[in-house]
Every structure is written in structure tokens, then in C-alpha cells.
Write a structure and sequence with these properties.
Blueprint (H helix, E strand, L loop, with lengths): L2 E12 L2 E12 L3 E5 L6 H9 L6 E6 L12 E4 L11 H9 L8 H7 L15 H13 L5 E5 L7 H16 L3 E5 L3 H7 L2 E6 L2 E6 L1 H8 L4 E5 L14 E3 L3 E5 L6 H10 L6 E5 L3 H8 L16
Parallel strand pairs: 3-7, 3-8, 5-6, 6-7
Antiparallel strand pairs: 1-2, 1-4, 8-9, 10-12, 10-13, 11-12
Helix pairs in contact: 2-3, 2-4, 4-5, 7-9
The protein binds adenosine-5'-diphosphate (ADP).
InterPro entries: AAA+_ATPase (IPR003593), ABC_transporter-like_ATP-bd (IPR003439), ABC_transporter-like_CS (IPR017871), ABC_transporter_ATP-binding (IPR050763), P-loop_NTPase (IPR027417)
Organism: Halalkalicoccus paucihalophilus
Protein name: Trehalose/maltose import ATP-binding protein MalK
């Protein structure tokens, strides 16, 4: 397998805090790899170790076969989480500025087209929408035509339309052959974009796999969530596996073709409800399961198997 990036047994502590605790991973060329995990899990520290902006206490990183600080600067780019360029420059001026920092950079016009900002390149950065600003930021990371692009929470704080635009841009970059390593708190984003997802918790890589494999292994069952305060008692003899919170009754393990039957059973039991929603397990469920972040209201199961 042709790897863009290999990390072996990385550890990094800050005083008594262990930010990374023996992380090993490999990212294949052309892959989109999404790193997810709770705040404080060590994501930023891992990105910094992989890009050579921090030195791990132990372990090794290899980017295109070299230590990260020895890699040709044109092959790797990082868009950090907190990146705020000067506001009183136009998008074009900003990209020209960043392009000027490299010995070899791409024509700014090409980058503007690639990020879909050619028509809005003359507006001051401060006048652009959040999504457009972030696209310019991504563009500033593309001026050196990197083969490996690190994006630390690229869509945080952007409205849904801007997020969608940016996702399309990242998908296009990946289609063009760029290897993308991104961190995100947005599970839908990881699910939509990533070939593989890694879940980091307490400095350890808990699980790595394709979104589909992670959901199949850890996402649980599809279920029907009924908005009602009826509790499990009224439905306890139904034969369904149910759980309840103060506001919902959840019927577990309901396949799509069985939704009608379950609704009929609710009505037979005289349960009144505000709404019904059927959900398939998603990466969000995997995250909640593996990161140990299931809510305090996580219900106790009641009822028999069906
Ligand atoms: P994440 O990006 O997943 O939120 P970080 O890598 O920022 O996690 O942090 C992991 C842990 O290391 C946290 O407990 C954080 O407080 C600590 N940490 C990170 N950077 C520093 C630093 N420069 N000095 C001290 N502690 C740090």
C-alpha cells in the first residue's frame, strides 16, 4: 500500500497531561482520513505531531517516507483551526500573499477557480460570508499545490450552506488526488467525506475504519423513536424491546418494513404520541458509543426480544 503518512507509537505529554498515548496509524495516498474525538482527546496534538510542528516524546512520523520537518514544503499544507488572515485584503490579495511565501507556487487564478471564488476574488475578506472566508483559507493552504492537506476543523462555525460548499471542495480536492487528513466534530461530515475515520479518545486511537464498517460494528440497531411520555410500562407486554426517557419511547431493532407493524402495536396499546421518527444507526451513534459520551438520560432497556 502506498502510504502518504505513517505514525508509529506516538506519545506526547504536557506536564501531567497525556495528550497522545501510543498512537499508530497510516494514511494511504489519495485517501480522505477524518479524525474524530471529544475535546481534549489529543486531535490537535496529533495533527501537530504529524505536521512536524510539535515533536512527540516518543514514536516516529513519516510523511512520504521522510520525517515531517524534512518533507519538501511544497508537498504538505496545514490549515489550522484558528486561522484568521488580515481582513482588509481581498481574497485575491490574500492568496497572492501566501503564494509569495513559496519558491514555487501555483497561479493564484487557478487556486481561485479551484475554490470557486474566481467571481468574488475582489471583495475584502471581511465582507465575505463565513463559507467564502473559509474557502479562501483553504485556498491559502493550496497555493503550494500540496499532495497532503491537513484541515483542522475546516467547517466549524460555518453555516450549513457554507459547510456543504466546503465539503464539495474537499471532495473535489480528494478526487483530484490530494490526500486529506481532517479533524471534525461533525459526524455527518466525516461520514460524507472520509474513506476512513479514526476515533481518538484520551490520546488513544480507539477505532479506525470506513464509516460503513464502523457503523456496522458499533452503531447499534435501527430504531423507531416515539415522542411520548408514556414510558415503557404501557408497552411492556408488546414483545418489542423498548426503552424510554421522559420524552421518548424507543423501539429497538425495527427494520424499515416493520415500521407499520410497530406503529399499529403502539396504537393497540393506546399510546398517544406527538411524532415518530425511524433512524438508522450513523457515525454519530458510533461516536457516542465509543467515546463514552452517551447522554445521562440513556434509558434502561425493558421488554423481551423480538
Ligand atoms: P483536541 O484537539 O482533541 O481538543 P488537544 O490535542 O488540544 O485535544 O489536547 C489534548 C490534551 O493536551 C488536553 O488535555 C489539553 O489540555 C492538553 N494540551 C494540549 N496542548 C497543550 C499545551 N501546549 N500545554 C499544555 N497542555 C496541552
Amino acid at each position: 500500500m502506498d502510504n502518504a503518512l505513517v505514525a508509529e507509537d506516538l506519545s506526547r505529554s504536557y506536564g501531567d497531561t497525556t495528550a497522545l498515548d501510543g498512537v499508530s496509524l497510516a494514511v494511504v495516498r489519495g485517501e480522505v482520513f477524518a479524525l474524530i474525538g471529544p475535546n481534549g482527546a489529543g486531535k490537535t496534538t496529533l495533527v501537530r505531531a504529524l505536521t512536524g510542528t510539535t515533536t512527540p516524546d516518543s514514536g516516529t512520523v513519516s510523511v512520504f517516507g521522510s520525517p515531517p520537518d524534512a518533507v519538501d514544503e511544497n508537498r504538505i499544507a496545514l490549515l489550522p483551526q484558528a486561522f484568521s488572515p488580515p481582513e482588509r485584503l481581498t481574497g485575491r490579495e490574500l492568496l497572492e500573499y501566501y503564494a509569495g511565501l513559496y519558491d514555487h507556487s501555483r497561479p493564484v487564478e487557478d487556486v481561485l477557480s479551484e475554490i470557486g471564488m474566481a467571481a468574488d476574488a475582489e471583495g475584502w475578506y471581511e465582507t465575505l460570508s463565513g463559507g467564502q472566508q473559509r474557502r479562501i483559507c483553504v485556498g491559502s493552504a493550496l497555493v503550494n499545490d500540496p499532495d497532503l492537506l491537513f484541515l483542522d476543523e475546516p467547517t466549524t462555525g460555518i453555516d450549513p450552506a457554507g459547510r456543504r460548499d466546503l465539503r464539495d471542495l474537499i471532495a473535489d480536492l480528494a478526487d483530484g488526488g490530494t490526500t486529506v487528513f481532517l479533524t471534525t466534530h461533525d459526524m455527518a461530515e466525516a461520514e460524507a467525506l472520509a474513506d476512513r475515520v479514526g476515533l481518538l479518545a484520551d490520546g488513544r486511537l480507539v477505532e479506525v475504519g470506513s464509516p460503513e464498517a464502523l457503523v456496522a460494528d458499533h452503531g447499534g440497531e435501527s430504531r423507531l423513536v416515539v415522542e411520548t411520555d408514556a414510558g415503557t410500562d404501557a408497552f411492556a407486554d408488546s414483545g418489542y424491546r423498548v426503552s424510554a426517557t421522559s420524552r421518548t419511547l424507543t423501539i429497538h431493532g425495527i427494520r424499515p418494513e416493520k415500521i407499520g407493524e410497530a406503529v399499529a402495536a403502539l396504537e393497540r396499546a393506546g399510546i398517544e404520541y406527538e411524532s415518530l421518527s425511524w433512524t438508522q444507526p450513523s457515525l454519530e451513534d458510533v461516536y457516542l458509543e465509543l467515546a463514552g459520551e452517551r447522554g445521562a438520560e440513556e434509558p434502561v432497556l425493558a421488554g423481551g426480544a423480538r
